[in-house]
Design goal:
This protein has eleven helices and seven strands. A hairpin with a 3-residue loop joins strand 6 (335-341) and strand 7 (345-353). With 361 residues, the protein is an alpha+beta fold.
Length: 361
């Protein structure tokens, strides 16, 4: 590999650069051979062939080694536009990696601070138990996400294979290409929706609680749902005097997810009854119900509804209800329950404390 990097034939040098890139990806940190390889790659950034300079930029995109930073700065002003583009792309990717590493360190610091607090309260055994439980939850989440993504990627691969077969046999018509392109676009959009849902579910926003009019929150949620899709009539019954300490943006997000579910459950019905949203105060709690008279759920679907990725919708992501539960129960110390009958509708009941005792990080 080193001999190829020192070769006079630029085609052989390109082969050496490709081999070096593969080797660097698998090299053990601290390997004494890393530095000589990096030094040769850095020197090749001055090569007379633009193909070689571009290849060096591609290698720089795959490693955060500090010696490549000044190289990319030079290549970003190269006379050849392809080299400049490769250098810009490499610099952007390295910045993304650096930012991700910084966020990872912040996340690790946050987890350690939480574990330190648990250890102070419950001792080393408490810390170890919580750490084991959190690792098991993370492993389960990663495994379920992997299966969900694979399930979405398989049809994309099938579409690509059909396209390749038709193109190779010269049997592809314009209609065939358009049909497959639309199918790929829809599946890619679904995959993006799943990943966006994952990001929303795993987010840990800084929550600020303040007294809010419950009726105002419900009216805002209904308006948002109506703006985003055609909805049946939605009735809101709530006393304007009821206020609760909530994180307004997050609670509206949870209520919107639940109300969208109610709207979709009523879709397609010839004479859909109105969706009824009620809020009442009971002692130191506010009780919110969202009742629809749509398709409803049987016992099996109802049991699976709160589970991540579980969805009966053709284009559902399985994050809407779990995220609402997380916001209401974990972030607002409330409770969410479901009651449903197949063919008759669903009632979602939310119970929230009127006064919140602490802010959530």
């Amino acid at each position: 590999m080193l001999a190829a990097l020192d070769a006079r034939d630029w085609a052989q040098i390109l082969e050496g650069i490709a081999a070096a890139a593969a080797w660097l990806r698998s090299a053990t940190p601290g390997d004494p051979q890393i530095q000589p390889v990096i030094a040769r790659l850095v020197a090749l950034a001055q090569h007379g062939k633009w193909e070689v300079r571009r290849a060096v930029a591609h290698v720089a995109a795959q490693t955060l080694h500090g010696d490549f930073a000044p190289v990319l700065a030079t290549l970003a002003t190269d006379d050849n536009s392809r080299v400049r583009q490769a250098a810009d792309a490499a610099a952007l990717r390295r910045r993304d990696w650096a930012n991700a590493s910084a966020l990872g360190r912040q996340h690790e610091d946050h987890i350690n601070a939480t574990l330190d607090d648990i250890e102070a309260r419950f001792g080393p055994r408490g810390r170890a138990a919580v750490k084991r439980a959190s690792e098991q939850i993370a492993n389960t989440f990663a495994r379920e996400l992997y299966h969900e993504v694979i399930k979405l990627l398989s049809p994309l691969a099938a579409s690509a294979d059909r396209l390749r077969t038709r193109l190779e046999s010269n049997r592809a018509t314009r209609e065939d290409l358009l049909e497959e392109a639309i199918r790929i676009e829809r599946r890619a959009a679904h995959l993006r929706a799943v990943l966006d849902g994952m990001r929303s579910y795993t987010a840990q926003p800084k929550l600020q609680f303040a007294a809010q009019s419950v009726k105002d929150l419900l009216d805002e949620t209904v308006a948002l749902v109506r703006d985003n899709q055609q909805a049946p009539r939605i009735e809101v019954h709530a006393d304007e005097a009821i206020t609760a300490d909530v994180s307004r943006e997050r609670l509206v997000q949870a209520l919107m997810n639940l109300l969208v579910n109610a709207v979709e459950a009523s879709a397609g019905l010839a004479e859909a009854a109105p969706i009824v949203v009620r809020a009442t105060q009971e002692a130191a709690r506010v009780v919110i119900t969202i009742e629809d008279f749509g398709c409803g759920m049987n016992e099996e679907v109802l049991a699976d509804a709160p589970v991540l990725f579980a969805t009966s919708k053709p284009h559902g992501t399985g994050f809407g209800l779990p995220l609402a539960i997380k916001i209401i129960e974990s972030e607002h110390d409330g409770r969410l329950s479901l009651a449903s009958t197949k063919g008759h509708g669903t009632v979602v009941t939310i119970v929230l404390p009127l006064r919140h005792q602490r802010d959530h990080a």
